Structures are given as C-alpha cells and as structure tokens.
Amino acid sequence: MLRKVYRYRWFYLLMAPGLIYFLIFRYIPMAGLLVAFKDYSVTKGIWDSPWVGWRNFQTIFNSPDFPRLMANTLIISVYRLVFNLLPDLILALLLNEIRVRWFKKLVQTITYGPYFLSWVIVYGLVYSFFSPGTGLVTTFFQNMGWGELNVLANSDLFRPLIIVTDVWRNTGFGAIFFLAALATINPELYEAAVVDGAGRWKQMWHVTLPGIREVFVLLLILRLGNILDAGFDQIYIFLNARVTNVGDILDTWIFRRIVEQSEFSVPAAMGVFKSVIGFALVIIANRVAKRFGGSGIY
Predict the structure, then answer these.
(1) Cα gap 166→164, rounded to integer Å
(2) pLDDT at 135 over 80
(3) H/E stretch holding 175
(4) DSSP state of 9
C-alpha cells in the first residue's frame, strides 16, 4: 500500500486540498451534533452543558406546528423535485436539437444568466411586477378594470410563485448536467439509428434518453437527500404573515428559534432529524435504482 501511495503521490497531493476542506468544514463540525442531546448554554459550552437525551426531539414532535411544517416542507420539496428536473431535461433536449451554433450559445447564455442572481434580487423583480398598487402587472389589472391582483400575499398563489421563480432561476444551470451527459453519447449510435430509418423523435427516444438515464437517476437520488430543505433562502425572502400557513417550513422554524428565542438545542435536534431522513432516502433510492438495473451513486 505504501508503494502505491508513493507511486501516485502527485495524485494524492492534488486531492489533499479537497480532503482537507471536507475534514475541517464537514467532519470536524459533526462533533456539534451533541448539542441536539443537551440543554446547550453558550456560557457553559458544548461539553459542560447538561445532557437531556431525547428531550429536544420530543419537543419537536410534540409541537402543534410540526405537522403543518412537515407538510409544507414535503409539498414544496416534491414540487421542486418534479418541476426542477423535468424542465432541466427538456431544455437540455431542446438545446441539443439546435444545429445553429451561435443561436444555441445565445439561448444557453440567456437561460443560464438568472442563476447568478441572488434571491433578494429575484424577489425585487417579482415585487416590481406584483407589488400591491404600484407593481407593473397589478397596475395594469387595475387600469383595465379587472380588479385588484394580490399575488405576494395570496396563500393560494404562494407555492406556484415559489416554483415558477425557482424554475426561471435554476433551469439553465440544471440543464448543464444533462448537456454534459448528452455530449458523452457515442455519435455512432445516432448514425446507426438513421440507417435503421429512425427520425429525430425515435432517435431521442431510443438513443438520447437511454444515454442520459444514469445522470437523471443520479440527480434524483441526490435531490432526495435534500427533500426536507425546501430552499430556505428563497422561502424566507418570499414569506410574509399572510402566507405563513402554506409557506412556513422546517428551516424557517429553525431560524426563528435561533434568532428570536436564542435556542440552539431544539434547532440542532431538528437538523439531526432532517439529516437522518435524507440519509435514509438516499440509501433507499440508491438500492431501488440498482434493483432496476441502474448504477446508483455508489
């Protein structure tokens, strides 16, 4: 083993920065999970705070808000899972069919651009269109005599607004993964399909989609691991008192417990709960993918 390490020493040297990063910022902080099982006090520190066992988890599960928070988180996460992967795939397939090179680059640049905007800027754009009384779209509705349009404070429109803005911002970036997978498909497969008389649709169905199936399954498994996240940064910015019943999620609840109540143990327990659920979903999804002939993530 030492001879192999010495033989590939330059490869290990290239890996060292990444390994050190994960060691310092991912593995060492895992010692902080003890906070979830203690009555943490800032003055006493992690080690001297009293041990309370599962009490923090009982506080979470006995909270009257937990069912609503869990339901909102799962609904928004499932919406994200469906309406993120499919638009990414469709955009990548459409870009792959464009034969004019400059037009393909132009479309890809336009769709990729919004990814670099922060959610604060995205909300500012949405507010400029739908702010009550002064927004461009709301003012147009009023001038046309169609009544008032209330989008930002309408609980029925909050989740669609979240999904639409998320698709607009992230679809261009998500399509990059599928475009990279499309570039690895052997061109000879398309040539053979043409010889067999397959048109563009049949080539897509029998060559393109099977060629990117593994990447699709991989992204699906990885996103299942984050199904209890639901996008805190976007939700927190778009959230207001009128839509709390449908938009309040686990992460916003954690944020309020930390900032407003200066409580760390219960939010840490919630973080452990989310991590365990995400880890279990990744393991199950990976085994299901292998059962149906896929390679999974490991």
Answers:
(1) 5
(2) no
(3) helix 155-183
(4) H
Complete DSSP assignment for 275-291? HHHHHHHHHHHHHHHHH
Q: Do 37 and 54 form a contact (C-beta atoms < 8 A)?
A: yes
CA pair distance 125, 243, nearest whole angstrom: 19
Q: How far apart (Å, rounded) are the C-alpha atoms in residues 264 and 253?
A: 12
Distance CA 38, CA 32 (A): 11
In whole angstroms, give the CA distance from residue 12 to residue 8: 7
Token duo for residue 281:
């979903």
Q: From CA 284, how far away is CA 225, in angstroms rounded?
A: 10
Q: In residues, how long is the chain?
A: 298
Q: What is the reported pLDDT for 180?
A: 87
Q: How far apart are CA 110 and CA 94, in angstroms?
A: 14
Q: What is the dihedral of CA 244, 249, 252, 256, to 10 degrees?
A: 70
What is the rounded radius of gyration, in angstroms, for the C-alpha atoms of the chain? Answer: 24
Tell me how far apart the alpha carbons of residues 86 and 127 are, in angstroms, rounded to a whole number.
Answer: 27
User: HEC string of 31-58?
Assistant: HHHHHHHECCCCCCHHHHCCECCCHHHH
The Cα–Cα gap between 33 and 45 comes to 13
pTM comes to: 0.83
pLDDT of residue 293: 67
Calculate mean pLDDT across residues 248-274: 87
